Amino acid sequence: MMWVVLGWLGVTGCATSASVAVPQTMETARASEADSPHEGEAAEESLCDVSAACSGLDRYLWDGTPIPEELTEAIAVLEEGCERGEGSGCAALASMRVLGRGVERDLEEARSLYERGCELEASTSCLGAGWMQFHAQGGELQAAQAVRTWERGCDLGDASSCRQLGGLYHFGRVVEPSPEVAVTYFTRACAGGDVQGCGDLQEHYGLRLGATAEEEDDSARVLVFLRAGCDGDVALSCVLAGAFAEEGRGRGKDPQRAAALYRRGCEAGEYYGCTLLGMLYERGVGVSESSRRAGELYVQACEANNTVGCASLGVLQLQGRGIVGGPILARQTFERACKMGSARGCYNLGVALRDGRGGEVDEAEAVVRFWIGCERGSGQSCDALALMVEAGRGTEKDVALAEALHQRACEAGWPKGCYNVAVSFELAGEERAGSPEALEAYRKGCEGGFGRSCWHLGHRLFQRAAGAEEVIEALEAFERACRLEPGRACSRAAAILMEDARVPRSPQRARRAMAAGCEADDGESCLRLGHLYEAGEVVREDRERAMVLYAKACGLGQEHACSRRGAMLLRVPARAEDGRRLLERGCEQGDDWACERLQR
């Protein structure tokens, strides 16, 4: 997902280079590689250029039914799945009919299957159905129906369907032209990972959106379009403007305004707004914290078939917060979300099955659900699946496949997956552990906000550092780790700032790192902070504060801190004997500094 907040919308899609809603013939759909254009020939765009369904069969239908590798058997499973109401089966079977792969090519049957799949809430099926309706493929031209079909697909989370709608509103085909609505749909497609949705924003409106709110881009100008759309009662525009306000895109963060815009969108029938408003209530951001109100909003969204609303509802039910639920009901809700194609729902269902929440442990079924979530674009699912495969839980152990799945998780934007890629290099031996590939994986994990990845990146960089530039990069990694997961990384950063001659000494910057580390119970950070208070460096001299810090560090296993506290107690007549015992213990433990103090 492209953005933190909009990522919760659950918009998914295949990144393609296809343009939007330009009438083309489907006769160019290729039946096989043998029919592909020769070098130098340009292929006319077809449905398969914009449909993720045509990229190949997944391993499972969304209800968990395995799809055989043998094509004839796979077709039979798809047909059976579609007949019993599994929309993903209809969608996959339709694409096979378009391609003539394993079955006779039949556009009329393909269109019927796509339409049925869309009715059954398979989002990618709506994309195909709308395309064929709009281009009069497999039946008569139904342009107005195509708009409604793509609206359904976009609502269900298909980013390419959102982009098609953006194209219609931009060019004024079937609908009245509206730059505000076009930018709204292109923005939603872009946020859903549809590369061309981002490209259309830039090509048609000169607007570029960055991957983070901190990145310089044209968010302020996009926000003008979204506000205009919202003022024109376009509910989706209100919700996206709310997401901009929550993330601080285009202007400063304004959670109260975000809540108001989400509420407006929700009340107008845009149920992503209900879900995002529920998340604010759950966290108490911009509104008074209320798990009960969050639960009500999630129920409202889930009943309207908003997959993220269902997945969020399941979490509240599992935790028993604000709503009647419990593990059994939560598991059922996760299953519903997963069957609707929610990657997050599939991940949560996999966790419930793996850990036995709401029912018996079923590791084999957990593997299935993680697979489906992974195929739906969830890096978290890919990573969880990799760990199962790596350990041989619920499936055969396969180290190579596990590494590939960790890599897939990383590429999907799950930072822990990047970290696990690097760890797999570590386990393969020192040569791979220190390789540029391993460092890059740690770097991606760190940039994605996974603290342990920053720690290991800093450690590896510092090990090989030859000059100031490399030490500075290691220091930055340790400091980022200290902010993300305060602990030992804080003391490593402080040590570099205080003692490494290759970088300018900075006691004040080091003190901040020490304080964060000590607060997180890192003994060395407490010890170093005690030094500062004892010496009065950067901070006002405070011997009592120093002794408290030494005591904490000593309790956390820092023997030198015990010795330092002992030396300070030695100067207090009433505590001199306690001080001597601490120094003696330090000396026995090999602390030369303690031995020297005893000899004085």
Describe this structure in words.
The chain is an all-alpha fold. Among the domains are: 1-29 and 47-193, Tetratricopeptide repeat domain (Serine Threonine Protein Phosphatase 5, Tetratricopeptide repeat, Alpha Horseshoe), CATH 1.25.40; 414-477; 558-600, no CATH class. 65% of the residues lie in helices and 0% in strands. It has 32 helices and no strands. Mean pLDDT is 88; it is low at 10-45.
Sum up the structure in keywords:
600 residues, mainly alpha, Serine Threonine Protein Phosphatase 5, Tetratricopeptide repeat, 32 helices, elongated
Could you give the topology of this structure?
Elements lengths: L3 H4 L63 H13 L3 H13 L7 H13 L3 H12 L8 H14 L2 H13 L7 H13 L3 H11 L13 H13 L3 H13 L7 H13 L3 H13 L7 H13 L3 H13 L7 H13 L3 H13 L7 H13 L3 H13 L7 H13 L3 H13 L2 H4 L2 H12 L3 H14 L3 H17 L3 H12 L7 H13 L3 H13 L7 H13 L3 H11 L6 H13 L3 H8 L1
Helix pairs in contact: 2-3, 3-4, 4-5, 5-6, 6-7, 7-8, 7-9, 8-9, 8-10, 10-11, 11-12, 12-13, 13-14, 14-15, 15-16, 16-17, 17-18, 18-19, 19-20, 20-21, 21-23, 23-24, 24-25, 25-26, 26-27, 26-28, 27-28, 28-29, 29-30, 30-31, 31-32
Keywords: Repeat, Signal
Organism: Lujinxingia sediminis
Family: Belongs to the hcp beta-lactamase family.
Tell me the number of helical segments per DSSP (H or I, 4 or more residues long).
Answer: 32
| Spatial extent as radius of gyration | 29 Å
Shape: elongated
User: What's the CATH architecture of the domain at 1-29 and 47-193?
Assistant: Alpha Horseshoe
Class computed from helices, strands and strand pairing: mainly alpha
**Would you count the extended β strands for me?**
0
Mean pLDDT: 88
User: Low-confidence parts lasting 5 or more residues at pLDDT below 50?
Assistant: 10-45
- Could you say what the CATH topology of the domain at 1-29 and 47-193 is called? Serine Threonine Protein Phosphatase 5, Tetratricopeptide repeat
CATH C-level class of the domain at 1-29 and 47-193? Mainly Alpha
How does the major sheet shape up?
none
CATH homologous superfamily heading of the domain at 1-29 and 47-193? Tetratricopeptide repeat domain
Please estimate the helix content.
55-70%
Beta-strand portion reads under 5%
Beginning-to-end CA distance, first to last residue: 64 Å
